[in-house]
Amino acid sequence: MYKVIAKNTLYQTIAKIFTAGTGFLITILIAKSFGAAGFGEFVKITTFTAFFYLAIDLGLNAVFLQQEDSESKYKDLFYLRFLIAFLTFLITNFVAFVLPYDPILDIGFSEAVKFGIFIFSFSFFSQAIILSASALFQKRLSYYFYMLAIAIGSLVNLAAVYFSTSVLFSLTSTIFALVVGGAVAAFLSIIFLKKSILPVKIDFIFSKKILIKAMPISIMLIFNLVYFRADSFLLAFFKESKDVGIYGLSYKFFDFLIALPLFLSNSIYPLLLRNRKNFRKFNSLTKTYLLVFLCLGVLFIIPFWFVSPLFAIIKTEYLEAVLPFKILLLSLPVFFATSFLQWIFISLEKQKFLMYVYFASAVVNIVLNLIFIPKYSYLASAVITGISESIVFVVLLVSLFNLKIILEQEVQS
Question: How many independent structural domains does the chain possess?
Fold first, then answer.
């Protein structure tokens, strides 16, 4: 079983290497072609849209995999997600339409940014397909095909963005290029899954059941995303596009690093589900992998700390991104650990508890950013990000310890 976990973690890591590698080059191409202000516009588009990506996720996969007949219910999950993607597309563009903009101070969301949001929101549909397919890839522990789909889609992304930035010199066409790459990955996911999605069918009983069960996870993810992305969103309202671009660059690279533990967690989650009623085995798994996650977080700090000044190679103005990136790096072990702790509580069906934890952390994060961003800009955002995640880590760790005591008493009795 450990070999299977290692193999599927490797496949996810390779997929991330492709997305991160091409994403790294895409970030450089966009940042270099359009400068800090133009890159700030790009960050506004992608960050705003990312808020609504969560509506397509909703934690449905975690609940879907808990069902014994999940394989036969795949089509129901697929079309539920596609319907949600359509509704999310409409809501996103309505909200974007009413967002304010001050052309004199270059604060807020310009018409060009709103049009970019409209184009990028078409990626909701490909995201719905990829997420649904990944549920069965995870169920079967066959991430090899997921890796292929994502890798090929990433390469298409890179080629399309290169053409856009070097020939068309248009941010709008660059956003469209990203949508094309996602569509390719989605199409390949359907092919590799070898699972029929016809005829079109929506099971409303199934949809209602899974949405209700996933609601605590959904709310948790919303609060989680709020305190992950609120800083960039608030920067857009308080600071000019250049500041948004500088922080956006540092967070792009940090975002890649904090995604790494998710792959290991995805491979371990089915194992946690199988052993959640075996206290000793479950306890051993949580201790071992929590230590692994913490150690990996520490190890990743060292090389990236020393290479961060290379931001200046993109453009000298991005040298300002080094300090916020280093501040974010210091919180990396905490992010790695909480990534695993979340799945422990989900496997024990403690989603409601996670919902309350992330609600509290989101409130703390927003309040602190509202207070300190106007004066300290992105440096405040970087510090507050680490503080918020540290609070989550302490609360989850203490709660897990108390929960283990209760479970151990139940086993002994």
Answer: 1
